[in-house]
């Protein structure tokens, strides 16, 4: 083998965070999986380097949360049309906060007051789905806000709008939109998301303020609604009940969504109802639910849904006297509590809790059952924050009753030095050796080494996809990868290159 024929081709190493570092959109209430959990990696040294505010704007008042897709942010607001207050769905530019469009969806006249829409738009593909305070269901064009189809569900199904108005958000799974229209019968319904036609409606369960969720339990995809009667899980294809959990609730406020915690489903309601968990089982192909535990009084979530992490629920508990708390999902036992959050909300990102306090502070908290441990915090917006932030593409989007803002929380990107190949001989010239190092001499760690491949071919004109991995694989030694093979048997001319993602 002629050493002169070896090609020390430098790999084009990525200078950016891997695709797993910056996850995708936040298209529905409480994220892509309806559980308040983001898989993104974020920067956590906020005191040392304050997150950069990208924009901050005033909004019409509302309690609606934010959704994000394709460079746009969506929410619902109250504002005047010049004659009277109206409820609008608005789209903002995610990079600048500039309003792209606003669509008038209905009157802004609320039972019991309390300032504006509570529902959050869902955005899938080129369409936005809005469920208004008076139970009108809209499908809008993402690009323009044009109404593509709509239903006045309260009118069509003789529905009753509950006190404080509708607060549940439309749930979109596959080609269907799921809502509880609270009509005179068959209240839980699914509509074709493309043309708005009714797919099915079933069950007499009365609506509450909570948003339904979709999940897979025991291998079965299901949509879980919290209702006045308790939890009901339905087959998204035909609406058939898969299981029920008796959990009668008051008529005032049950706004926290169900939370899946292993094979348990947690639920909560204010004004004396309390909280509980259904243990869902599968036997002979049939799902059923039994009470795992139940608590009363202040051991519940008024309207902020908790998140689940490694056996525990973390959320804002209580009514009037509020606290951030850790609760054992298996037993309902409270492990610790921390005051000072008000009617805030909790998300989980990169295995950390992100708490938005009522006063607009973002707080990083370590999710651990033994004690409250705050990592860092930063103030974001003014006004009451009774809703959830959204996390997308290294940014966190926050809104209060009257403001919205975006902050950069992406991790600092450290460029990796490009790789280089160094050919040589070892073993008194009896062995051929290739060393893979970096151009600036920095060591290669095990994580980076796992993505590096050394490829070889006897024909330099061969297509790059036909090059073969060397055997054996290079070995990491003292921060460099080493490949060796014997020169005892002639192998002819060979070429080498190194690649990494």
Describe this structure in words.
The chain has 501 residues and is mostly beta strands. The protein has 4 domains: 3-16 and 415-499, no CATH class; 19-209 and 386-412, Lipocalin (Beta Barrel); 217-300, Thrombin, subunit H (Beta Barrel); 304-383, Thrombin, subunit H, CATH 2.40.10. It is built from 2 helices and 40 strands. The protein has a 5-stranded mixed sheet with strand order 1-27-28-29-30, with no helix packed on it. The chain has a 4-stranded antiparallel sheet with strand order 2-33-32-31, with no helix packed on it. Strand 12 and strand 13 form a beta hairpin. It is elongated, with a radius of gyration of 28 Å.
Helix content: under 10%
How many domains in all? Answer: 4
The stretches of 5 or more residues where confidence is low (pLDDT under 50) are: 1-23
User: Rg to the nearest angstrom?
Assistant: 28 Å
Named CATH architecture of the largest domain: Beta Barrel
Characterize the main sheet. Answer: 5 strands, mixed
CATH class type of the largest domain: Mainly Beta
Per DSSP E runs of 2 or more residues, the count of β-strands stands at: 40
Q: How far from one another are the termini?
A: 29 Å
């Amino acid at each position: 083998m002629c050493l002169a024929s070896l090609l020390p081709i430098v790999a084009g190493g990525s200078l950016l965070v891997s695709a797993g570092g910056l996850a995708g959109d936040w298209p529905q209430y409480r994220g892509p999986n309806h559980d308040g959990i983001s898989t993104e990696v974020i920067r956590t040294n906020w005191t040392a380097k304050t997150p950069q505010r990208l924009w901050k704007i005033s909004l019409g008042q509302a309690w609606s949360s934010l959704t994000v897709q394709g460079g746009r942010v969506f929410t619902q607001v109250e504002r005047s049309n010049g004659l009277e207050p109206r409820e609008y769905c608005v789209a903002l530019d995610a990079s600048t906060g500039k309003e792209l469009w606003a669509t008038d969806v209905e009157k802004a006249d609320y039972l019991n007051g309390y300032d504006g829409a509570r529902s959050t738009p869902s955005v899938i593909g080129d369409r936005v789905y809005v469920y208004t305070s008076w139970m009108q269901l809209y499908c809008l064009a993402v690009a323009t806000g044009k109404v593509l189809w709509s239903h006045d569900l309260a009118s069509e199904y003789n529905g009753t709008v509950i006190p404080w108005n509708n607060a549940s958000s439309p749930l979109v799974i596959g080609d269907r939109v799921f809502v509880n229209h609270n009509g005179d019968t068959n209240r839980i319904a699914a509509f074709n998301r493309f043309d708005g036609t009714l797919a099915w409606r079933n069950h007499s369960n009365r609506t509450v303020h909570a948003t339904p969720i979709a999940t897979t339990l025991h291998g079965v995809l299901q949509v879980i609604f919290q209702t006045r009667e308790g939890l009901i899980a339905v087959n998204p294809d035909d609406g058939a009940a898969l299981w029920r959990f008796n959990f009668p609730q008051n008529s005032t406020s049950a706004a926290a969504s169900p939370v899946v915690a292993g094979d348990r489903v947690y639920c909560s309601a204010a004004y004396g109802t309390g909280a509980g968990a259904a243990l869902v089982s599968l036997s002979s192909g049939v799902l059923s639910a039994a009470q795992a535990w139940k608590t009363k009084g202040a051991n519940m979530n008024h309207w902020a849904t908790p998140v689940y992490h490694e056996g525990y629920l973390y959320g804002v508990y209580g009514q009037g006297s509020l606290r951030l708390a850790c609760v054992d999902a298996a037993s309902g036992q409270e492990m610790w509590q921390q005051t000072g959050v008000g009617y805030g909300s909790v998300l989980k990102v990169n295995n950390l809790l992100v708490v938005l306090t009522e006063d607009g502070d973002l707080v990083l908290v370590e999710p651990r059952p033994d004690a409250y441990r705050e990592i860092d915090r930063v103030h974001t917006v003014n006004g009451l924050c009774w809703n959830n932030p959204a996390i997308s593409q290294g940014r966190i989007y926050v809104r209060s009753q009257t403001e919205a803002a975006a902050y950069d929380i992406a991790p600092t990107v450290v460029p990796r030095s490009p790789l280089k190949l160094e050919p040589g001989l070892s073993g008194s010239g009896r062995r051929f050796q290739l060393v893979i190092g970096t151009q600036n001499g920095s060591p290669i760690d095990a994580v980076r080494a796992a993505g590096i491949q050394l490829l070889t071919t006897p024909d330099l004109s061969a297509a790059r996809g036909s090059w073969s991995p060397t055997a054996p694989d290079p070995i990491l030694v003292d921060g460099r990868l080493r490949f060796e093979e014997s020169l005892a048997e002639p192998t002819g001319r060979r070429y080498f290159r190194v690649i990494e993602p």
